## 1
Amino acid sequence: MKIGLQLHPDRGVDAVMEEARVADQQGYDSIWLSDHLMRPYTNEHKADGPLDYLVLATALGAVTSRTRLGWNTLNLSFRPPAVLAKMLSTLDQITHGRVIASLGSGWLKDEYEAYDLNWIEDHDDRADHAREVAHLMKELWTHPAPHETTFEGKFVRVNKLPFNPEPYQKPHIPIWFGGDSEATLQSVKEVGDGWIPLRSGTIDNVARLRQDPEWPKDITIIVGRRIIVAETHNEAVTEATGEYERGKAAGAPGIPPTVEAFITNNIIGSADECLEQLATLEEAGINYVRCAFTADAPQERVSRLLISRLDEVPSGKLVARV
């Protein structure tokens, strides 16, 4: 089990750089950005963002030393596929192997039209495009120059491309797909090293997928969860209740209808309770949690009380602490 941290670039450049430095020191396995050219879910567009998240990831790689770099998820239609493969491979060299190629099909049509980018209207066609891009990336990363790669797909083509630089990670940068559709799941089966479900990452659904003979056996499954750990169960529940009420009052997207559902759907409790909840996820095949925090103290407690004890997961290794 590993824990990654979703960053807050909307807080400003200096704040997100410091957030990444702290996460690196606290032992979070990865730091995550999104990948949008315009802010989603709003009609208000201001001059201060969003930043270009590939450029920002390069800067974050320079101020961190161990945490990996991911996106939820990279939009594969923003940049020419072979050029994107080169950018990621370059960043992988710069960071000595800390890049995760977390890929998505894109969904915000407005940003395509505003930036005059090619929009693929049909969702499954977008997923097929993403799958082709992933196949191309894997081919380029595993057959660098002097080999010349020719690739002829429905959406993606290169001709006699002597690709460089090769990535630092071998055999290639890990490829994680984000999404729930059957077309996306087919991409996971064909070329994925990881899967980032949006809404379908339940224990029951993951168990069903793992019964599929085509499902990859050694795969990272990443879910987004709030993690609220405290010295006692009651302290954690009190904090979770307050966070839920603030989120509901603010109309936060995805907020469940009740505080009980919020607590059930997330990782909340004392350290031992949270470790048991993480162990339950891992036993089901979910082995990575991406979390976000609204304040510094909860983030520090996850580092101090949980990350330092993740070697005790799965539950057979858990040792209760008095």
## 2
Amino acid sequence: MNIKVVFPALMILMLTQALTSCGTKEAEYDWPCWRGPNGDGISLDTDWDPEALSGGAKILWKTNIGIGYSNVAIEDGLLYTMGSESRTTSVICLNAQTGKEVWRYAIGPGLESQSIPAVDGARVYGLDNRGALVCLQAKNGKVIWKTHLKDDLNARKTSTG
């Protein structure tokens, strides 16, 4: 069954602003939101050697972020993703070079993270599968604001078949 959240107008405007601003001022290797800086899934990086991939990709580091389906957003050498451990969904910030955890913010109860954080300069946004939406400081994970789509904004889930 497909579940879709109906957003109030204010929330749509806030999320649209955050997500459409992804392509405004990234460094060469930033990937600040789903499908990259231009929303098309294409990297503009041309300074790489395809021969470096012969024999497979070289794994630089691995880390356990829990379970879920989140991809990553990258900006200013920091990698943002989401994962669930011990029935808690978190937004996680890692050093993109080393894989070391910089900070972790527990949004709340959840079994599997399903969204990808979006980065907008000094802010990162995370949405869990129960409707909790957070805006965090990108460098340290401190809360700027948080809300719940259903409880605070009266959003409702509808099923489509």
## 3
Amino acid sequence: MEAIEALTSRQVTVGARVKAFEESFSAYCGVADSVCLNSGSSANLLALICLTNSEIDEAILPGSKVLVPAVSWSTTVFPIADAGLVPVLVDVDIDTLNVSAEIFEDGLTDEVRALMPVHLLGNPVQMKNVLQLAADHDLWVVEDACEAHGALFHGMKVGSMGDVGTFSLYFSHHISTIEGGMLTSNSPEIVDLARILRSHGYSRASKRALEFANRYPNIDSRFLFVNRGFNLRPTEIQGAFGIHQMTKLEDFIRIRRENGRYFRRALDRYSDYLLFQAEKPGTRNVYLGFSVIVSEDAPFSRRHLVDYLENAGIETRPIVAGNLAGQPAMRFVRHEVAGRLPNATRINRQGFYVGTHQGIGVAEREYVVSTFESFMRKWLSHK
């Protein structure tokens, strides 16, 4: 109904509903401000473009390098190159599926200017050590929290700890505006610049609009362009969805966690053959999905297990984009690879995940577990 009212009001681009959604999202994440966008991919792009813009003190220079986990999403990595920077793909920890400060440190060179941790499948990165490494080497931190709405690291929401945070509001994520994204930051300079760049480079999107108008009195202030820009704006329809989705998020997380922990408890007996994503003490994994990595020593392959689940009507997915270093699209992206990426390669070859969506109830999750069990009985009886 809120979306219909937005349509009938004829105020269908950024307006009061988008602003209310941004304020609600900021309050939830514990950040100073948020900027709503048309996608999480755009949030990653805008975050990096902001940090390379000369309006920002100590902006990242063109050609500088950004460390990013190889197990992530295409539009985590591609925007680094789109911003004139060089993505350097690093490995991840096989237990958490996340990058760590130690892995980042192994990839550091004098050319690296930023770290881009990804809270994979809703599992928080150990941010304290990452932030300390960034402070020690004067590096920017962009938190890709696109899959991790409401995930916690020692009481702090992901997306609130780095210089910039990014979220996706796509249909398959924790909350949805169908398509959409959010940029978060505690920096007024970054947020104000993001609002300018989001909307064509207009001054009118800025809190400094009057200052700009006085500086350029001979230009119509309604069409005063003070920086480069894009059109990454959401609509009021997305804002309408967002303000009501926010009130449901904690319930969605509760159900996802119940489903994820149920799968872990029920399948833990097969831990000699299946590896599951670890939730570290002091963190809250919000389970975008439940990941499984088939052991190299198992008497079956990932393909055997995935085919069995799919044939039983249980949909599966690769673990995000697998090892992006092996994706054919990377031939179009200037990039580097730090080391051999053995864990990313293993995850790509042996890993997958099943759903934990809030629409999955007791009957569905019991069916998933019973299907795993019947598969394991079949293969282990012949071992």
